[in-house]
Amino acid sequence: MDADRQLDQDGHVAGRKAAAPAVKSSAAPARRQRTPERDMRVAEQPAFVLHSYPYKETSLIVDVLSRDYGRVALVAKGAKRPHSKLRGVLQTFQPLSVGWSGKSEVRNLTSAEWLGGLLPLEKSALLCGFYLNELLVKLLARDDPHPTLFDHYVEALNRLAHEEAAPIVLRRFELALLRETGVAGDIAVDATSRQAVEPDRWYVVDPERGPRPALPSDTWPRVAGKTLQDMQRGDYADAATQSQSKFLMRFLLAHHLGGAPLNTRQILLDLMQL
After folding, report:
1. Cβ density class 79-95: b for 16+ within 10 Å, e for less
2. CA separation (Å) from 40 to 28, 43, 104, 169, 225?
3. How far apart are CA 166 and CA 173, in angstroms?
4. For the whole model, what pTM was predicted?
5. Residue 69 and residue 72: Cα distance in Å, rounded?
6. Strands 210-213 and 96-102
7. How far apart are CA 186 and CA 146, in angstroms?
8. CB neighbours of 193 closer than 8 A, spacing ≥ 6?
9. Could you give the domains of the chain?
10. Are strands 59-66 and 40-55 parallel, antiparallel or unpaired?
11. What is the pLDDT of residues 231-266, one digit of tens each?
């Protein structure tokens, strides 16, 4: 089955009724939300739509990732009307320039313009893009700026659109996400000795502390020191690094998600064995 038939353009899994996300996702780790500024007015902010869902009869609530303000919830008034200009603009994976105003956590969208510059995602790459969006919605706190993570997201979309190896693109983004949200540090440093990991030694990665030498009793995924060094450098050319990093990142993400499932990951596992 084609991956682009599995999800609709709002990021819902086809054939299932997706629950509308609350203002704060219950699947995300407990993090303190920033209090929005009073009477905030923002214009011409680079952003991407992560997810949207109906609000009242003619409007949408749109979850966007912005470069300078992080993940923001916006009410797009009248966006569901047949002749609304917003209908063709508020699409996932499209570079936008948006503006908003308001002093509540859910603000009012005041402008949205398509910028272009990225190729569209198709087939399996489209599903990978929805996977990135689901990670951001569930792991990124609202109103928490991460401009570097925004750049990683743009790079990942661009690489997927140019049909680069999806497993490598996803591993790089997953690790960047954990680093930028402050739950992962330098994975090439032994947390117990504070020395660089040894390439020929086996390690486990404590989700809260970092790598340490593996013990016979450990049930966590074991990875070679070389794999950790490769991941730190973003080098996934080695087949062993690709395999070990896959299981390591699956373990770390499950921990930080509190065990909440990722809908798109299961489909990716079925289609691509990622």
Report:
1. bbeeebebeebbebbbe
2. 25, 10, 9, 35, 47
3. 11
4. 0.82
5. 7
6. unpaired
7. 18
8. none
9. 20-33+41-114 (2.40.50.140), 165-272 (1.20.1440.120)
10. antiparallel
11. 999 999 999 999 999 999 999 999 999 988 888 877
